[in-house]
Amino acid sequence: MADNNHIPPSEPQGASSGASNTVEPTTQASPKSPSPKKLFRYSHKKIVLLASGGAIIVLITAWVFCGIFLPKTTIGSQTVRSNISDIALKRLIETESNAYKLTLAYPDGKTRQFTLKDQGLTIDSAKTLQHAAKRKQFSNRVTWWKHTNVQAIVKPDTPAFNSFITANATVIAQPSQDAALSIKDGKINITDAVTGKQYGLANPQKTMTRAASTLSAQTLRLKTLAVNPALTATALQPYKTSLEKTLSQTVTFTMGTKTITATPVDIANWLEITPHPDTKKVDITVNSGKVQEYINKLTRNDIRPPRAQVMIKEADGNERILVPGVSGVDVINKSDAAASVANSLLKNNGVSAQLTIRNEAFKTISSSMYDKWIEVDLTHKRMYAYERDQLVNTQLVSAGAPSTPTVTGQYAIYSKFPQQDMRGRNVDGSNYFQPHVRWVSYFYKDYAIHGNYWRPLNYFGNINSSHGCVGIVDNDASWIYNWAPIGTPVIVHT
What we know:
By secondary structure, this protein is of the alpha+beta class. 29% of the residues lie in helices and 33% in strands.
C-alpha cells in the first residue's frame, strides 16, 4: 500500500527535470545600498552648503573689517580715515579753516581771493567736531565705501560780513532810484522809480556761507542782477492821497478881530517828508518850529517885545535905573498855538488856532556896575552887550528849547574856545554830535554863548531850539568872543 504522506527527497541544486512544474529555488532578499550617483548628489549639497556658509562668514568678516578700517571722512581738501581721533580731526579743521580761500570772479575778467577773516567769517571748530561725529555712525560703517563729507559750522560777524559783501561782492553798474514824493508850490508830485543794475551774487550771505562750510576752494562768479527800487510810485500813492487832504483842509489863525487862513503853500512849508526805504514806508510829520515861523510872520507888525529895566546898585548901596524899562505887546501863546496846529494838522479835519495878544509889562533886573556885561533875555530871545551903562550891541538868540531850558541867574564867562566839537544827549536818550562849533564862551558849567551855523536865520529872535546854550549867528558870536574877556558877567533871565 502506498504511503500518501511520503515526501520524496529533493533533487540536488542545479538538476533539471523535464517536469513542467519544477519549482525554481529562491534566495532571501538583502538591504539595498545607494547608488554611486545618489551618493555623489548628497555629498555635493553638503559641500555647497558648507562653502556658502564659509563664504558668508568670510564676507561678513571682511565687511566688518572694512567698516572698521576703511571708511573715509573728507574735510576741506583733506580725506582721512573716519576713525581719526577727535583731537586730530579738530586740528585738521583748524588747518583747513586757515587755508581756505574764496575766489570771486568779476565782470572784467579779474579775480580776487579772500580768506575767512577777510569775509568776516569764522569756523566754530567745536560745533563742527560735534557735527563730524556722524562719521562714526553705524550706517556710515555699513556703507564704508562712501566718504563722509563734514560741513563746517560757519559763524558770521554780521556787520563785517555785510560790509565785505558791499565792498567786494557787489559792483554797481547803474544805481536804482526810489520813487519820490515831493510838494512844490502846493502841488504834490510823485517821481517814478528807476530799476538799477549791479553785478553780484543772487543770495550773497547764503551762497558765501555755504561755500565756506565746505572749506574747499571755490570760485563764485558775479552775475548781472536787477536792483529793484525799495519805494515805487504805487507804494507812494496812498501818501499822496493823504497829503492832498492835508493841503486842502482849512487852517485859520485868529488874532483879535483878524482871521488869517493859511494857503496850501503855507501848509506845505510846515511838512517834512522822510522816506524809509528799509521799511518801504514814508513818514510825514509837521515841524512845529516852521509853524511858529509862520505865526511870527503873521504877528510881526502887531507885537513889540518889552525891554527889561536894569537897576544898578551903587557903591553906597543905593540903586539907580541903568536902562529904563519899556512895556510891550506880545502874542503870549505862539509856541502853544504852533504845537496845537502841528498835533492836529495830519488828522485832516481842519484846524483853528487862537492867538492871544496881551500887553506885557517890562521886568526889572538888578546888576552891579561893570565895565562890560551881558544881558540875555530868554523870553524875547535877545542878548544885549553893555559897557557900564551904555548899550553897545544887540543880538538875536536861539536859546534852550522848552525841554532843555537855559539856566537863569547871574554868571560870568570862565572859559573860551575859538572852535570846539560838541557832544551830548538828547531828551529821547539818543546822542548828538555837532562838529566845529565856533566862538564858544562858557559862563556856567557846560552852558555857553556860541555860534550856531545849523539853524535857519529866522530861528534867531523867534525860536528857542538849543540844548541849553545861547546860540547866535557866527558873526555875532565872533564879536562877543572878541569883546567879552574871561570874567565878563552874564545875566540871564526870562
